């Protein structure tokens, strides 16, 4: 089971790149290699950038505790759902 974090209201700034991630202590995840290799994905107001536009897209980290993901592998999409609610 993956656990997530919620960014508190007021914590989002337009034009800023954010990373959505989760901790999966059992090590299970879904991935599609090359998903972000040639294009990003737009679903306004959210935009998933093409790999390399602002560092890597499709980042990950391995470990037993939550850590910021900085590794990339073949522009993969790890299918972390982002829910954005305007208030």
* Discrete helix count: 0
- The geometry reads as globular
How widely separated are the two ends? 29 Å
The major pleated sheet works out as: 2 strands, antiparallel
Short description:
With 87 residues, this protein is low in regular secondary structure. It has no helices and 4 strands.
Question: Can you put this structure into words, describing what you see?
Answer:
The chain has about 90 residues and is largely without helices or strands. It is about 0% helix and about 10% strand. It contains no helices and 4 strands. It has strands spanning about 40-45, 45-50, 60, 70.
Task: Show the helix and strand layout.
Elements: E1 41-43, E2 46-48, E3 59-60, E4 71-72
Antiparallel strand pairs: 1-2, 3-4
Q: Tags for this entry?
A:
little secondary structure, two-stranded antiparallel ribbon, two-stranded antiparallel sheet, 87 residues, globular, 4 strands
């Amino acid at each position: 089971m993956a656990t997530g974090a919620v960014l508190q209201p007021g914590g989002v700034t337009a034009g800023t790149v954010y990373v959505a991630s989760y901790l999966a202590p059992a090590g299970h995840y879904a991935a599609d290699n090359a998903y972000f290799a040639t294009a990003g994905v737009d679903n306004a107001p959210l935009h998933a950038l093409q790999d390399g536009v602002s560092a890597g897209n499709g980042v990950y980290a391995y470990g037993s505790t939550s850590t910021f993901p900085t590794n990339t592998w073949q522009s993969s999409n790890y299918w972390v759902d982002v829910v954005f609610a305007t208030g």
